[in-house]
Amino acid sequence: MKDRALIPLLSSIAFAAIIAACLIGSTAMSPGRLLAALAGAGSTGDAIVLWEIRLPRAIAAFVVGAALGLCGAALQGLLRNPLAEPGVLGVSACASLGATLALFYGAAALSPITVPVAAISGALAATALLAFAAIHTSSVVTLILIGFGLSSFAGALMALLLNLAPNPFTLSDLISWTLGSVANRSFDDILLAAPFMAVGLVFIVLSRRALSALSLGEETAHGLGVDLPRARGFVILGTGLITGAAVSIAGAIGFIGIMAPHLVRPLVGYDPARTLTPSAILGGVILVLADIGVRLIPAPSELRLGVVAALIGAPAFVWIAIGRGRANG
Fold first, then answer.
1. Res 234: pLDDT
2. Which of 29, 74, 174, 278 is the most buried (most CB within 10 A)?
3. Cβ(207)–Cβ(231) under 8 Å?
């Protein structure tokens, strides 16, 4: 399937998913009421539900999913490993650790921007370490183990913060960041993270040619005139900024960055550069649909989005890993 057909198709599905997220909830909203609320002609209650609850939540889910799908595709292209993604490699966990530290020590009360800055700092540190490891080892297993170690270490520190939380309100905030959710997110939360995502997107777009060349091997890429250190730096900065900004909105959500590129890659000829945009759109669609499912699953309290994403994504990760092992065997 050509990019020019795939991207419009995925965009249409994304639009439909966001509309569905606005219609579905504890109280269903008819399409007529939705259109009236969008036009400003509906009831005050419908306007509040749409503009302050459902639409911001749907947009937040799409933006976070798109960010994770894009970063997964970029990291897989850089490391030439279909198992690479921010969650599996510990980038999301380190970003969450940065955000929880900002919340725990009260820095978030000083300025709202401290949370995304702290999350981005954690993501950049983890991505830089992984890139350094990728330069000095060709073993995929080693990279996965490093990512596992980063996730475990960040998880242990976050568990320590949970144990030391001074009051139930702080504990609730910290749990939200560790489990992932887009509930109660506003347009302000999205706008706060948007500049960081935009800058990260520029870095990844600038690395597109390098990612395509790297699929042929580092020696071939160098022979084609690709500046490999520059390309690695761009991907590191881009994925760090975007992942950190996504975590500042929704907390830690894993496996989206594996599923979306894996589904898209065969449709674009396995070209890492052509995988980026469709992976972003599909990642957004997956997370919007998962968030709709979170609201529909009968439970005493709403399930966390990160938990549902892991329940779906972990089996997919195992399946991809088994398939890769058979291919290499």
1. 86
2. 74
3. yes
